[in-house]
Amino acid sequence: MTNIAIVNAQAHRDLQVKAKASPAFDAKHFVAVIVAEFPLLAVQCPILLSKDAETGAFVCGAVLGFAQNENLFLTPDGWQGYRPLTLQRGPFYTVGEDLAIDLDDARVGTDAGEPLFAQNGEMTPYLRGIINAMQELRPGLERTKRFIETLMNLKLIEPIDISLSFDDGSRHELANLYTIDREALRALPDAAVLDLFRRGYMQLIYLMIASLKHVPLMAERKNKQLSTGPAPAWG
């Protein structure tokens, strides 16, 4: 259940949000992202496509782990690397042009976390950061949708299956994921390539392709975690 309310300085001046990454909310192995995040993500994890379970539409996402609810970037010391906007925004939403918050979210309270407003009623840097993130997300979702539609129209999407073995004898397979069809990309006519370049899509495509190098690197990270034993409990 949710209890969505428009953020208001009078009604919510005492509200605080536990904004730090935590297993309860960030333990996800695949998170939807927008194209503006590709440069930040491509240096740490694979960027792939998946199909929304409800609509069947393609979404761009960051692969953060190899098993369900596994996030290899989430440690007791905090998030290691760039944290996607979908997770940064926490319990916040947009309702029309307004910023809203889910008052029933477990991260929302009055006793711990980042305050939304200062004593004088001014927005805190944390809340301003959330507003900036939401302002980036909204148009970013539309641009990402157009990018995916272009890939589909040019038949540049192909399935990819990732199968890995780990030092403890376990195996993990990531199915129902998609990447760029490099053969189809090379076969594109010059006019299509030029159009992709001018729209900024060619850079995004190459970032997706380059990000695949992180599959073995993340496997090494997982093996290192397995060799050191269970992580200390979160505080």
Textual characterization of the structure:
The protein has 235 residues and is an alpha+beta fold. 34% of the residues lie in helices and 23% in strands. The protein has one domain (4-223). A five-stranded antiparallel beta sheet has the order 3-5-4-13-12. Strands 1-9-8 form a three-stranded antiparallel beta sheet. The protein has a three-stranded antiparallel beta sheet with strand order 10-2-11, with no helix packed on it. The chain is globular, with a radius of gyration of 20 Å. The relative contact order is 0.18.
In short:
This protein has 235 residues and is an alpha+beta fold.
Topology:
Elements: E1 4-6, E2 16-17, H1 23-26, E3 30-32, H2 38-41, E4 47-51, E5 58-63, E6 74-75, E7 78-79, H3 85-88, E8 92-95, E9 98-102, E10 108-109, E11 114-115, H4 125-153, E12 157-165, E13 171-180, H5 182-186, H6 190-198, H7 201-211, H8 214-228
